[in-house]
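hey can u check if this looks right to u? its 821 residues, i copy pasted from the old doc so theres a chance i mangled smth
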Amino acid sequence: MKTPQKEKKPMSTTHHRCNTGSHSSRLSQAIQGILLASALTASVAAHGEETTNRKSYHITGGSLGQALSQFARDAGILFTGESTLTDGKTSKGLDGEYTIEEGFRKLLAGSGLTYTITDDNAVAIKVAEPGSDAASTLPAVKVLGKAVYDSTDPYNTDYNRTNATTATKTDTPIMDTPFSVQVLPEAILKDQQNVQFQEALRNISGAYTQNSEGNVGGAITFLRGFEVGTYYRNGFPIPANMNPARRETANLARIEVLKGPGSLLYGRVDPGGVINAVTKQPLDIPYYSLQQQFGSYDLYRTTADATGPVTKDGNLLYRMNLAYENSGSFVRFGHDEHLFLAPQLRWNISDKTQLTLYAEYMNDESVPKSGLGVPALVGSNRPAPVSRDFTKLDPWNRVKTESGLAGLDLTHSFNNDWKIDFHFSSFVNTETRLINYGGFVNAANNLIRFNSNSGDDITSYWTALNLTGHFDTWGLRHTLLAGTDYYNTATKSHTNTASNTPLNIFNPVFNLTEIIHDPKNDILTDASTAWNGVYFQDQVELPYHLHLLAGGRYDNARLSQNSSFGSKDFNHGTVKPRAGLLWRPMTELSFYGSYTENFGTVGGDATLVNPDGSQRSPEQAQQWEAGIKTELFNKRLTGSLAYYELTKQNIATPSPNAALAALGYQVSIGEAQSRGVEIDLTGQVLPGWDVIASYAYTDTAILKDNSGNIGHLLPNIPRHGGSLWNTYRFEEGPLRGFKFGAGTYIRSQRQGDVANTIQLPGYATVNLMAGYEWNVGKSKISTQFNVENLLDKTYFQNSAGRAASTFGSPLAFMGSFRIEY
């Protein structure tokens, strides 16, 4: 097969010498080498110094022939054909910056093939000498600066990633994506020892987490002013009622965040953005890791990671991640015991087809470590002045969660330009909650509490089919994506609430006797949600370094609910577009603008109909965005500046009829807006010095409302918020192996409720880390020590209204010991 390229000079003639011998097998190998050398040649002379200059490549693993073809095409060198010598051989691919020589060496690793560079600067692929180490025959490669390691490399220490898939569902350079995309690699999670998923999101501009140590009912993150209640695992949606607060970090390769609406690719989503947890994948090179962490408040956590080939030919690979955690809390009675298992198996069926099977299991039992928040006193605009160990909960409170996830990914490449992928995931979650909670405080400082015995059984599945292709029309390069997806979830829940004795918040007396509820008083609810969508997207490389992205999606959503109060149904279909234009006048700089529309849920799903019985309207949103992106220091440091204006309509507000509002009826007339500026900087400033920094200015306002809140600010969103984290690793001298880090998180004052009757003061925290690593034989051993909130600042992380504001973590320590080999 021939991939056409614009040829600047005549192709060099490639000559090489193959090993010969008296045996027919050696003669056969020599003949095959000659055939391959004549079939696969690359003219490097036409590109001058490109053999030593680096370029960014992102080539997925799979067929060796396809990988070599894509590498030649991306490098801009002529690829004239394929040889049968590559049939059945696979490659790990490339992800990072490489010279042409480094690229060939990486792609051919373990294949039994090698390459030579001739005097006339041509490259030829040939069979390695029998019994020899192919790598030892390769020419020395001069490294110009620090290379960007393969993103699948478990030893990767880079903070920066140049490509992401969440914004486009194609492997696209962030510099060529006309939307705001941020990536948090595993290296950042390791350096900060982020054992809670939402802790890592503090590094993203405009992202604010709702919970610090809370682990009941899930944790909400705010992006660009609006709640994001759904997280994604490799594109699979996991709604908030499936407890994403415990989204485990042990098997995460990175977290990708798309700012703004993502309905085109993900259907019914929150308009603030898409948070996608990308998991580790099986590797063809054995790797093992065992880590023990320990910290304040009796934290003990063990994690393990193992991967490698199952069969000698490397066609069957596995990976297993596990985590066990037992921890207390600075909140009285708070405790958590957590188990997580995640096996994977990948079958390279052929050089064009791969099948991955995966599963996850989680078991969690806890007394909520947030204490369910601090109430505000009557007439006060601040949370009550209580100690940080305050809790509303008696010691018998508990939450039990057990969940399982299983699925498969199937990918088939028709040729070098067209591929199809199929995904299926199924999720089961069972959660029971026996807790007492409270709302407002009366004039006697007593918190009125209620006992609640509730639970959910949730079953969901998701499937998606995508076709991706690359083709040219009239000299324009296209990357086409066409796909369809279907999502279904069913929930069976019960709730039983009874009164409880009041709790004096300044002199609490707790009830040590567990309250037993009568299940005959349970309120039962069955609910189901289903939606399916069809989407189309085209990324076009235009002349003058312009990149156009345009697409649209049709969605149909169906919701139904049966409860003790009756039945409700909802059905709605819509078409939503998005488009963006990016200009990249030079490699280091991009300018972009985009427009996106969003299709969301029905706010307040408990009342799917208006008081007159008609269907309520789903939430919708529109966003305009413009920005600048840059890559500096040979792509080791990336930065972005974005301005956006995001408006959300059809927000649920109480019915204007007070009697109907008291029955829970809502109408979809609310509207809110968020606009602001976001700055993000990630990567390496100098050799050994890595940094991630962010700043967001966020201006929010309620535009339409039935409750007198027009003009109010949205809750939990600071007008100014920022973060800085940087580490320095000594690479030479007597301190080699040491790493030190420091950072801060800053938030200005926030409103605690939509009525703006309570405010949370601004705060800043300081965090530190120190680590040391060394080699023992083939093993790498590392120790690390982190300090959270060094100055022991008392602050509130977030608020759920006047009834509950959650303290942030006080001064805390965490140490770790890890061995890798």
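The two ends are 41 Å apart (CA to CA).
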